[in-house]
Design goal:
eight-stranded antiparallel beta sheet; five-stranded parallel beta sheet; 17 helices; Rossmann fold; binds adenosine-5'-diphosphate; 505 residues
Length: 505
């Protein structure tokens, strides 16, 4: 295979992942071109690249999803590659093919692998043929209602009816008993067509207390495929991840080796190259089932980088340039423990609904073992048009306890004012005994999180801030302004100084 040096790349994305890709490019001497919508004229990604091009209005369908315009822009800017990041066009096989057809390198897997893994029923079929265990269910999309009902009876209720083209935690309907089947199927089909433009649905057994455990894969274009161990992503709300960690607190070394090998087999089964993730669910009896394959860089990739020392985005560029992997499976080892908290502009007290608006003040924690992946600086707008992710807080320690304690300290040092965030919710998770013990599954939030916890947290926070402000006012001879209060930095020592340590374990 001919090597093709990537000299200049168009990053077809925004926010933190666009900046993350840019950082990798800067280290590798690759020129960067960003694209931006009307909502992102002043965004950090727009300002941080070598060149930036306007591509349309704020809704993604009028800008970041305009594949043809993005390819045209890349050609105009004399790029020789496009990196799609995650979301938007990243898992659109047709777009990847067009990029290649226009003579550019697509920094991602072959279009065929994207298309195959994007169709969840086809993906299940390919995995079954490769002897990768899949969640029990139908092999094909449902065509015959009677037959489907029979399958549901055989695997046993509850079941999930899932959209073949679903994603983002959407397009899943839990059916508790046979009486609900007909109505549930009708609703699932109608939701699948309206949300994903594809009415096809299939059945999976609903696993009662599963853990979401996924393996990171890297594969070059010469058939060399390795895994970089697993990430545990069971702390979710609305079937969407919020806190991820590497390694999983529950896997034994034998399970790690066994399912790592299965993940490599899964990647090979679809002719994979580049970075990808094989997702599994592990049930209460420690059975592993293939869930899906994500054919892109994952939001939570930094925790894997932290514990393996391998820069996944740089590897993506090297693989796309036609380089062979410079390491073998035996060369990759785990060191320490890393936890990512996704800091969202959302309201945990209102079912984690996005909280859009302007950030007034932003102070990010710093320190040993703290890595922040952020797309914003200072006052920025969290807009209705895009994912309300503010930043990813990645804390790494020598062991899991160290990583948890570092996360708590960093969350305490974070200041974001102007809109609601999930900082206190993340703190709640870190402080919870079940989480600290590693004894949790994907139902953790539903089972343990009560909004009162945050009221308690926030009331205590207000009390602490008021107490600290009073001390400051006293020390300043009463010169403190009442407005200073909201800007004060929270620290653990502040909490401790007024004897209000949380008691939520
Ligand atoms: P998406 O592609 O929308 O992210 P996934 O199939 O990856 O959907 O599932 C997302 C989450 O939904 C999983 O991590 C898990 O919490 C839940 N889930 C999916 N399938 C099942 C299942 N068969 N049983 C129980 N929970 C499931």
């Amino acid at each position: 295979m001919k090597k093709k040096r990537i000299r200049k790349v168009l990053i077809a994305n925004r926010g933190e992942i666009a900046l993350r890709i840019m950082n990798a490019c800067k280290e590798m001497g690759i020129g960067t071109v960003s694209v931006f919508s009307a909502a992102d004229r002043d965004a950090l990604h727009t300002k941080s690249s070598d060149e930036a091009y306007f591509i349309g209005e704020a809704p993604a369908s009028e800008s970041y999803l305009k594949g043809d315009l993005i390819i045209e822009t890349a050609k105009k800017a004399k790029c020789n590659a496009i990196h799609p990041g995650y979301g938007f066009l990243a898992e659109n096989g047709e777009f990847a093919q067009k990029v290649i057809d226009s003579g550019l390198e697509f920094v991602g897997p072959p279009p065929g692998a994207i298309t195959q893994m994007g169709d969840k029923t086809l993906a299940r079929k390919i995995m079954m043929e490769a002897c990768v265990p899949v969640v029990p269910g139908t092999a094909d999309p449902i065509k015959d209602k009677k037959k489907a009902k029979k399958t549901a009876d055989e695997i046993g209720y509850p079941i999930l009816i899932k959209a073949a083209g679903g994603g983002g935690g959407k397009g899943m309907r839990r059916i508790a008993s046979p009486e609900d089947f007909d109505d549930g199927l009708k609703r699932a089909v109608s939701e699948a067509s309206s949300s994903f433009g594809n009415p096809l649905v299939y059945i999976e057994k609903y696993l009662e207390k599963p853990r979401h455990i996924e393996f990171q894969i890297l594969a070059d274009k010469y058939g060399n495929t390795v895994h970089l161990f697993e990430r545990e992503c069971s702390i979710q709300r609305r079937h969407q991840k919020v806190i991820e960690e590497a390694p999983s607190p529950t896997l034994t070394p034998e399970e790690r080796e066994k399912f790592g090998e299965i993940a490599v087999r899964a990647a090979k089964a679809c002719g994979y190259s580049n970075a990808g993730t094989v997702e599994f669910l592990m049930d209460a009896h420690r059975n592993f089932y293939f869930l899906e394959m994500n054919t892109r860089i994952q939001v939570e990739h930094p925790v894997t980088e932290e514990v393996t020392g391998i820069d996944l985005v740089q590897e993506q560029f090297k693989i796309s340039s036609g380089e062979k992997l410079s390491f073998k499976q035996g060369d990759i080892s785990l060191r320490g423990h890393s936890i990512e908290s996704r800091i969202y502009a959302e309201d945990p007290l209102s079912d984690f609904y996005p909280s859009i608006g302007l950030i007034n003040e932003l102070q990010e924690p710093t320190g040993n073992g703290i890595r922040i992946e952020s797309g914003i600086k200072g006052s920025s707008e969290i807009s209705i048009y895009y994912d309300p992710l503010i930043a990813k807080l990645v804390c790494t320690g020598r062991d899991r306890k160290g990583a948890i304690n570092r996360t708590i300290q960093a969350l305490n040092d974070y200041v974001i004012t102007g809109l609601k965030t999930n900082l206190a919710f993340c703190n709640f998770v870190m402080e919870h005994k079940k989480f600290r013990d590693g004894d949790f599954d994907t139902n953790f939030v539903n089972e343990h999180f009560k909004p009162e916890y945050l009221n308690r947290f926030e009331n205590k926070e207000k009390a602490v801030l008021a107490a600290v402000a009073a001390v400051h006012a006293h020390n300043n001879g009463g010169r403190g302004k009442s407005g200073d209060q909201g800007k004060m930095k929270r620290t653990t020592s502040n909490w401790k100084s007024v004897g209000m340590a949380l008691n939520m374990r």
